[in-house]
Amino acid sequence: MASKLIQTEGHEAENPIGVCLREAFSLIESQLRPPFPLTIPSPPEYVNLNQAILYGILCEPHLAKVHIKHLHGKITDGYGFFTNMLTKVVNDLYPKLVDTAKIQLIWVTSEMVSVSAIGIDGLLVALLRQIVSGDFTEGNLWLCSELVGLFLAKWDCLLEEEPIVLTSALYTFLRLLADHYRLSSNSKLDVLKQLEIKFCIRMFREQFHLCFKIGRDLVRLLQELVHIPEFRAIWKDLLFNPGEFKTSDYRDISQLYLSRTSSRYFLLRITPEMETQLRFLLTHVNLGSQKRYQAWFGRKFLSFPERETLVVDIVRFICCSHHPPNEIIQSAVIPRWAVIGWLLKSCGRNYVQANAKLALFYDWLFFDERLDNVMNIEPAILLIVHSIPKYIDVTHTLLEFLFLLMENYDVGRKDIINHGVLSAFCMLVRKGVLCSLDILVNCDAISPFLKQRLVELFSGMKATVSKELQPVLKGCSLDLLKASSLEAQNTVAGNTHEQ
User: Fold this and answer.
1) 27-34 long-range contacts, Cβ below 8 Å, gap at least 24?
2) What residues pair up with 286 in beta bridges, in sequence order?
3) With 174 labelled, which of 66, 337, 454, 477 sits at a CA distance of 20 to 30 A?
4) pLDDT value at position 10?
5) How far apart are CA 320 and CA 352, in angstroms?
6) How far is CA 119 from CA 80, 85, 115, 126, 368, in A?
7) What does the pLDDT look like over 184-200, one tens digit per residue?
């Protein structure tokens, strides 16, 4: 029996999950029509029945209500196995599902939310991951619209049973809104944007204690939306009226800055297929052999100009969600910093490149050695150092951007940011990622102006660093700092005189 579930090319092998579901349906199809058998199925029969019913729901829309009633009557595990199979279908088959099956998938997911099925949070997250950033095709916008509608319709049920999944939805729709507002207006997108705004604003106004759980990247996403009136009001309250959020836990935006975002949120904006390809590249491909893999990835996922914004999500994923073990770090496998360097070069639009650099440095700004992971900040410093001297423009650009962030990201809380950046440098030296700060302040290839800024950072802030961090700075002696500072000042003065 040919599959009614997925679209396959002639040269493609059938997917094992699709085959399994179809064969289960074919085996017991006669038992899926009323009157249903009253016997209690054995464990193997129960598995086959769940698989057959799932195939029937997805492939026989006209009988879906019959199938779901049959399922309700036979369930003995809280829908755990059924929901797990649904999640596998989403992760492994969603892009290839026929349109009617995708419609049925959303319908049965809504049914599973209604009965508080075990594993529904994982299913919803899997569906959110299938919405592709920067993709304005009809199918992608349809999925986005269906899911934001589902979260609004099932608000009370989810709030009671799986409140944390609402934070995953918030992260997703905040990120997607930034893309949707860049596209020229059309009626379908306008309706979707209003639904996304409605959901996000409801989260902020009614469930801010849940929003808070996202951590500092909530601020990063919000800053992309301050031009939207509804979010401008949220931003003002975050800064000046914390009492508006009706939670005693929130007093100042610095609390969000100092709260690390869990890696699970970064996976939300990377489809399972993207994740598989990126992890393969960063685990099995040697440095020097990566170009054809990068070219394939670019053609597959970044070929349209609107897709460039995906680079921001990928950089955040590589920094915060893919932490290779020591055996990979010490091998010939292409390092994370090299892949990020390639991604930054692939950005054609200035705002995308700026957002990608912010994604690279974001944890630096608020780094706390007690909470943050050195692996999150490692790619940026290694890209800076390994670009010397062959790609010194990259080193200069990144250091300039870091200092720009320190000066302007939040002028009122500059002390927090300066301390975070210095703490990041100290941790990088302590963990051996940098052998010494001398590699930067004593490098002839780096411009005198930037060396002076580094010297000022490393010397002028010694008094503000905790005692635990002081020993790290000894690797960059005060005499060396003063000498480097004098050299930089003399060079800058000479250049000014020449001009």
Assistant:
1) 27/52, 28/52, 32/56, 32/66, 32/67, 32/70, 33/66, 34/66
2) 333
3) 337
4) 62
5) 19
6) 6, 10, 11, 11, 34
7) 667 779 999 999 999 99
pLDDT for residue 183: 78
CA dist., res. 445 & res. 439, Å (int): 11
CB-based contacts of 499: which residues, under 8 Å, 6+ apart? Answer: none
Residue showing tokens 């009253």:
38
pLDDT at residue 462 in the model: 55
pLDDT reported for residue 304 = 87
Q: Are 426 and 473 in contact (CB under 8 A)?
A: yes
First-to-last alpha carbon distance for the chain, in angstroms, is 80
Listed in sequence order, the residues at least 6 apart from 329 whose beta carbon sits closer than 8 Å to its beta carbon are: 335
Rounded distance, CA 424 to CA 32, Å? 61
DSSP 8-state class, residue 286: B
Q: In the structure encoding, which two tokens stand for residue 125, read together?
A: 């997250």
CA distances from 109 to 53, 122, 147, 161, 321 (A): 14, 11, 10, 15, 27
Instruction: Look at residue 97 and give its three-state secondary structure.
Output: strand
Q: What letter would DSSP give residue 333? A: B
Q: What angle do helix axes 64-74 and 43-59 make, rounded to 10 degrees?
A: 160
pTM of this structure: 0.91
**Which pLDDT value is given to residue 3?**
65
HSE value, Cβ hemisphere, 13 Å, CA-based, for 88: 16
Q: What are phi and psi of 464, to 5 degrees?
A: -95, -5
CA–CA distance, 25 with 79 (Å, rounded to integer): 18
Residue 293, C-beta contacts closer than 8 angstroms, at least 6 positions apart: 277, 280, 281, 285
Residues 220-241: tens digit of each pLDDT: 999 999 999 999 999 999 999 9
- Cβ distance 9 to 62 under 8 Å? no
> What are the backbone angles phi and psi of residue 97, rounded to the nearest 5°?
-65, 145
Q: What six digits make up the tokens of 438?
A: 């001398």
Query: How many residues can be counted in the chain?
Result: 499
Q: Do 158 and 113 contact (CB within 8 A), yes or no?
A: yes
* Residues 244, 271 contacting (CB under 8 angstroms): no
**Dist. CA 68–CA 63, nearest whole Å:** 9
What is the rounded CA–CA span in Å between residue 370 and residue 368? Answer: 5
Number of neighbours of residue 171 by Cβ within 10 angstroms: 23
Q: Is residue 208 within 8 Å of 163, Cβ to Cβ?
A: no
